Amino acid sequence: MHPDQEKKLAQLAKLPGVQVGDEPAEKSFMLSRLEDIANWGRKYSLWPYPFGTACCGIEMMAVLGSRYDLARYGAELVRFSPRQADLMIVAGTITMKMAPVIRRIYDQMAEPKWVISMGVCASSGGFYTNYCTLQGVDEILPVDVYVPGCPPHPEALLNSVLLLQKKIEQGDAFERGRKIVFEKEIQQLVKNPPFPGATR
Amino acid sequence: MNPTEHLTSRLGGKVLSAYQACGDEFVTVTPESFREAAEILHRDAGLITLSDLAGVDGLHLGRTPRFEVVYYFADYRSTPAQRLYVKVALPESNPHLPTISDLFKSADWLERECWDQFGIVFDGHPNLRRILNHEDFVGHPLRKDYPVDGRHVLRRASHLE
What's the pTM? Predict the structure, then answer.
């Protein structure tokens, strides 16, 4: 039993008329932390916002369809309005021209919110090392899970949702306004790269 | 008369060359006579469609003059369709051509794209601004001397205001 639960039970046992450990009492209530309940609810009711811009978008549709069936994990309710979604799936190449748009949409999503970067284009720019492609959506958004592949197999996206569920389960449910740009840390890394060629 | 004969008979020496390749007809004209050539094709030769317009940078091909603009005129009303490529060579410094967006509606966006990617100015274009790259972009990325990873950050997008 969790120490908090033992403490609570001990407090309850002091109350007049309460007997903890009796059969009726055990059946009448359950103790948990509010965070755990909130996280449990959140991880099984992710509402994705599909940001499909390329072939990864097609694979994402396959995941949402009946064969791979993301609905089994409670994330089937795709919302096309950022106000109603809490999981942004960035599936595809993001251009520099698109960057302010995707950032605006992310800002319009209500907290708590998570981001899955699907495929190499969204994660690092992929093979588009050119004049117009954003070299990874993590330059403008805080990404929770990266999915490798070009495009990733549908199982890979399913796995990323499961990973995200684990992350949500362990996370602090009442944390708000996540730190988005680690400016000092990035500047430190630019000054002292951890290994040669580490910076772009 | 086919479109090539229209041009050679009307423009004379301003048609630098006319040849056939891969089943298509090609005509090279001087930049000064291009506007007149486009008017002849549109009005007299019946090529009322501009299917495509492409810029070419011949830097690594060692071309002088460096740039070239290739127009692809067509008439899809006849069977088989009539087609004609018109090529115009342009110098490296201040490459510019008269617009034909008043004759061919499709030239509007095509000329904007050619200016955006190659920096070829189309004189008289009603709205010559970037069409593919964003508004904070500097330079013309399809020029061969443009760095391949020369990215520019778009900080404010006017279409979001």
Answer: 0.76
